[in-house]
Amino acid sequence: QLQLAESGGGLVQPGGSLRLSCEVSEFNLDEYAIAWFRLVQEKEREGVACISSDGGLRIIPDSVKGRFTISGDKAKNTVYLQMNDLKPEDTGVYYCAAAESYVCYASWQLYDYWGQGTQVTVSA
Fold first, then answer.
1. CA-CA distance, 81 to 118, in Å (whole number)?
2. For the chain, first and last CA: distance in Å?
3. How confident is the model at residue 91 (pLDDT cuts 50, 70, 90)?
4. Which of 7, 30, 108, 120 is least surrounded by Cβ atoms within 10 Å, i.e. has the fewest?
């Protein structure tokens, strides 16, 4: 069974940056799409980035476009989420997730495997 583990969350001031890491037990984009979701208070889980073998849908919402970037390092079995110019509304728990698919899905319900989440707090 695929296992994922996030790290890199923390407290950052508005305008600051964080890089989240997701260590994946098996990094194979031919079999899995890897996505980052976030859970912001009282809202449904929102996809913020995804990486897959087809290079297609990235599920990046307008709220993070130009600020968040996803990348992968196969040698390290790790997917990263670089977050720049962070805003207080980015505060939440960030999860990485994997779907047995070569395309990205927008819906969190279609992802089969999840990490435990990492807290990101943006505050002055």
1. 12
2. 40
3. very high
4. 30
